[in-house]
Specification:
It contains ten helices and nine strands. The N and C termini lie far apart (61 Å). It is an alpha/beta fold. The protein folds into two domains: 183 residues, 3-Layer(aba) Sandwich (Rossmann fold), CATH 3.40.50; 56 residues, Helicase, Ruva Protein, domain 3 (Orthogonal Bundle), CATH 1.10.8.100. Helix 4 runs parallel beside helix 6 and helix 7 crosses helix 10. The structure holds S-adenosylmethionine. The site of S-adenosylmethionine has 24 residues, from strand 1 and strand 3.
């Protein structure tokens, strides 16, 4: 019996071969690389990634999809399946020696933001990442200061990575078709952090508070964390709104204390 797509696992399977090829082409897997695919599903991308001869490990939560993936693994000795929740997965256990991981996936949209934060926690293991996400989420990831999509996700991810919006994918490329457009994003960790927060937790707190109340001025939204004088001392106008601050500005603010 064909697999019934499950909403709770965010299952929208790719079935447009032109789009599948386009995604594999931008990922450009090489035989000497170590790729991790999150949410392989019915194997739309997996089969091509495995064909490239790359060492491929896939993480899938839905038990009902394992039989199909196991069939694929029988044809490709380089493919390993992990039946697990990617949100709880310890990516450290996949790394051998000094290699870094390439992480890819058409991600389940319902968990995309927590998953991105989970991956950011493992960023030192990562060479690059290519994800299909809701177009709106990719716009938020790639947004620059002053743009309406710019927010906490933009700052926290751009602190660690260079973000590129690659291309848009229309709902018809999936079964079942989602209600919104999707897009492919590329995330490349900075070789060295361009701006270093002395206390990363404090930096995250500042970014969180600033965008929790994005219509308020900085001095209002940050008043439990920084005084107006401290904001001024970091060279930033306390009366502006958070979306006007660059990643460098947020780091500077947090390093003030
Ligand atoms: N890669 C396939 C494709 O492009 O057709 C499937 C993509 S579908 C949008 C998302 C996949 O992620 C599904 O196979 C789903 O079961 C899986 N998934 C959902 N939540 C997950 C989780 N927490 N950990 C691992 N896989 C998950």
């Amino acid at each position: 019996m064909p697999h019934q797509p499950r909403k709770r696992f965010g299952q929208n399977f790719l079935h447009d071969h032109h789009i599948i090829q386009k995604i594999v082409k931008v990922i450009n897997p090489q035989s000497n690389e170590h790729l991790i695919e999150i949410g392989p599903g019915l194997g739309a991308l997996t089969q091509y990634l495995a064909q490239a001869g790359t060492q491929l490990e896939v993480i899938e939560i839905d038990r009902d999809l394992l039989a199909g993936l196991t069939n694929l693994a029988e044809q490709h000795a380089n493919l390993t399946i992990h039946h697990a929740d990617a949100l709880k997965f310890d990516f450290n256990r996949l790394v051998k020696s000094s290699e870094r991981l390439r992480i890819v996936g058409n991600l389940p949209y319902n968990i995309s933001t927590p998953l991105l934060f989970h991956l950011i926690n493992h960023i030192q293991l990562v060479k690059d990442m290519y994800f299909m996400l809701q177009k709106e989420v990719v716009e938020r990831l790639a947004a620059k200061p002053g743009e309406s999509a710019y927010g906490r996700l933009s700052v926290m991810v751009q602190y660690y990575c260079q973000v590129s919006y690659l291309f848009t994918v229309k709902p018809g490329a999936f079964y079942p078709a989602p209600k919104v457009d999707s897009a492919i994003v590329r995330l490349i960790p900075h070789p060295a952090l361009p701006y270093v927060a002395k206390d990363f937790n404090f930096f995250s707190q500042i970014v969180l508070h600033a965008f929790n109340q994005r219509r308020k001025t900085l001095q209002n939204s940050l008043k439990t964390l920084l005084t107006t004088e401290q904001i001024k001392a970091s060279g930033i106008d306390p009366t502006i709104r958070p979306e006007q601050l660059s990643v460098a500005d947020f780091v500077q603010l947090s390093n003030q204390v």
